[in-house]
């Protein structure tokens, strides 16, 4: 029995020493140290031994078990360390290699124009006001001196949801809502950027959805000269310090008097070219003094308060500023187009 235990120890240690992976090592563990292993089978014959031999044989069996277990544990540790080392070698990163550049996005040209205009007017003491894109007919038309039977409504073919709810056709409702919140007390000094919607056939210069920025100032003793001075600052900031503006009489239901605003052509300097259609001037926005009816409907005393308002299409400003010839470029998500405005390349 003693010889058999020594043989099993020698045999087990040899197998442990030649084991190549953890799976094989575990099989050796089960084979020799399990309840059905050869060592257990040998110990079943201890009943035939004398009382003096049994303790000695039990001690020897424990020594054999401990020796095999210790060899398996040591081998397992070596195999695990080798596996980790192999994995690290396979996943090694050469930190001396140059990094792969990560392309970052940039602002859409319309966003850049909006932010540039916002920064300009915030610097002049304006605040940015916003309102709902799904608007009430009252704020979109009636509060702006456009009653239900007004012919000027035909100029803005609208997307109506119900009889009294529509997609706003201009950002002017934000002005009406803001004046209403002031409850007849000035001053009011805001710009209103946002999307607007009109039924239109999409082509190079028209879109059923576009962006506007409108401005409003209401206070005591506001004059047309204040409007002109404000727009001159805007034109020079957006198109160049040598630009000039001119005001031409026009009509808008919510302003009186009303004007169309032109800027001197930034390509030809007023001499005449294909951009300004040989006139030397480019139309950029509409403006005027706030109509007394609009002031009264919003709770302001038109004898005490006056104001001016202006509105521009963001796409038109961007097209003029960047020389873009088709409004549809803004909405087709063509990466080649957008890359032209990247500040990183």
From TrEMBL:
Its EC number is 6.1.1.20. One of its GO terms (biological process) is phenylalanyl-tRNA aminoacylation. It catalyses: tRNA(Phe) + L-phenylalanine + ATP = L-phenylalanyl-tRNA(Phe) + AMP + diphosphate + H(+). SUPFAM superfamilies: Class II aaRS and biotin synthetases, tRNA-binding arm. It comes from the Bacteria. It holds the Pfam family Phe_tRNA-synt_N. Binds 2 magnesium ions per tetramer. One of its GO terms (molecular function) is catalytic activity, acting on a protein. InterPro entries: aa-tRNA-synth_II (IPR006195), aa-tRNA-synth_II/BPL/LPL (IPR045864), Phe-tRNA-synth_IIc_asu (IPR004529), Phe-tRNA_ligase_II_N (IPR004188), Phe_tRNA_ligase_alpha1_bac (IPR022911), Phenylalanyl-tRNA_Synthase (IPR002319), tRNA-bd_arm (IPR010978). The keyword Membrane does not apply. Keywords: Aminoacyl-tRNA synthetase, ATP-binding, Cytoplasm, Ligase, Magnesium, Metal-binding, Nucleotide-binding, Protein biosynthesis. Gene3D superfamilies: Bira Bifunctional Protein, Domain 2. Residues 111-340 form the Aminoacyl-transfer RNA synthetases class-II family profile domain. PROSITE patterns: AA_TRNA_LIGASE_II. Its cofactor is Mg(2+). The keyword Transport does not apply. It is found in: Cytoplasm. Belongs to the class-II aminoacyl-tRNA synthetase family. Phe-tRNA synthetase alpha subunit type 1 subfamily. Tetramer of two alpha and two beta subunits. This is Phenylalanine--tRNA ligase alpha subunit. It comes from Bacillus mesophilum.
């Amino acid at each position: 029995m003693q010889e058999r235990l020594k043989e099993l120890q020698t045999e087990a240690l040899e197998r442990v020493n030649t084991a190549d992976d953890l799976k094989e090592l575990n099989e050796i563990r089960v084979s020799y140290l399990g309840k059905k292993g050869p060592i257990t089978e040998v110990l079943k014959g201890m009943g035939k031994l004398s009382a003096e031999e049994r303790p000695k044989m039990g001690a020897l069996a424990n020594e054999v078990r401990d020796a095999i277990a210790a060899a398996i544990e040591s081998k397992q540790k070596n195999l695990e360390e080798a596996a980790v080392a192999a994995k690290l070698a396979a996943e090694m990163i050469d930190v001396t290699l140059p990094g792969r550049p990560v392309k970052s996005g940039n602002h859409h040209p319309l966003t850049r124009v909006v932010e540039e205009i916002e920064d300009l007017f915030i610097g002049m003491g304006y605040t940015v006001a916003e309102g709902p894109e799904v608007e009430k007919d009252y704020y979109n038309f009636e509060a702006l001196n456009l009653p239900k039977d007004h012919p000027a409504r035909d100029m803005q073919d609208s997307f109506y949801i119900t009889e009294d709810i529509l997609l706003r056709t201009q950002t002017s409702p934000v002005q009406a809502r803001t004046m209403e919140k002031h409850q007849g007390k000035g001053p009011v000094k805001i710009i209103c950027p946002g999307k607007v919607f009109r039924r239109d056939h999409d082509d190079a210069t028209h879109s059923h959805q576009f962006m506007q920025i409108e401005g409003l100032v209401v206070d005591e003793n506001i004059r047309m000269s204040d409007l002109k001075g404000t727009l001159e600052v805007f034109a020079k900031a957006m198109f160049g310090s040598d630009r000039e503006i001119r005001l031409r009489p026009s009509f808008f239901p919510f302003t009186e008097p009303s004007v169309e605003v032109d800027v001197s052509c930034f390509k030809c300097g007023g001499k005449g070219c294909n951009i300004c259609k040989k006139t030397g001037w480019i139309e950029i926005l509409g403006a005027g003094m706030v109509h007394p009816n609009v002031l009264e409907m919003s709770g302001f005393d038109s004898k005490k308060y006056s104001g001016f308002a202006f509105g521009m299409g963001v796409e038109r400003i961007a097209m003029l500023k960047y020389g873009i010839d088709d409004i549809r470029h803004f909405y087709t998500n063509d990466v080649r187009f957008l890359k032209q405005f990247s500040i990183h390349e």
